[in-house]
Amino acid sequence: MSFFIYFFYAEAIFEVLPQLIKINFESGVIDELLFVDLPHESRFSSGLMMLEYGKAVQESVYEQLRVVREGQLRIIFTHDLKILSWEFCTRRHEELLPRQLVAPQVNQLVHAAQKYQTTMNGSKSDGFCAQDLLVNCNR
């Protein structure tokens, strides 16, 4: 679970990780998911081992939202296989909303656009009522 915390905070020492995880889940996160490709393993003369994942996907699940981040993951382990550092570099991210949450707003926008088009087509002048358009857009 510490991967997400290190991911969002520049550096977190292990004593504060439980508090950071608590704050994360109290903010509405329901679940954290991590999907990784096969790693490339490197060993250093100091005894440290590094796993690099060319493709890693981290997903935060909320009640009405999913945030998916795709990037590279690099984990460095001590000689006794404890995590020394966890680095996730995001290449891109998506915020996914349920259709039933977005559909009413899309319908309002379509209605406002149709009303605007009707106003423009029916008007002999080259102006329109901006206030009417704003009222329909801000519903």
SSE layout:
Elements: H1 2-8, H2 17-26, E1 31-36, E2 40-43, E3 49-61, E4 66-77, E5 83-96, H3 99-122, H4 130-137
Antiparallel strand pairs: 1-3, 2-3, 3-4, 4-5
Helix pairs in contact: 3-4
Organism: Vitis vinifera
InterPro entries: LIM-bd/SEUSS
Protein name: Putative transcriptional regulator SLK2
Number of helical segments? 4
Order of SSEs, N→C? HHEEEEEHH
Low-confidence stretches: 1-10
Give the overall form: elongated
Average pLDDT across residues? 80
Question: How many domains, as an integer?
Answer: 2
What distance separates the N and C termini?
41 Å
The Rg value, from CA coordinates, equals: 24 Å
Protein name: Putative transcriptional regulator SLK2
Pfam families: LIM_bind
Organism: Vitis vinifera (Grape)
Description of the molecule:
The chain has four helices and five strands. The chain is α+β, with helices and mostly antiparallel strands and 139 residues long. Strands 1, 2, 3, 4 and 5 form a five-stranded antiparallel beta sheet that branches. A hairpin with a 5-residue loop joins strand 2 (40-43) and strand 3. Helix 3 (99-122) packs antiparallel against helix 4. Pfam families: LIM_bind (PF01803). It comes from Vitis vinifera.
Task: Tag the structure with descriptive keywords.
139 residues; alpha+beta; five-stranded antiparallel beta sheet; 4 helices; 5 strands; 35% strand; disordered N terminus; LIM-bd/SEUSS; Putative transcriptional regulator SLK2
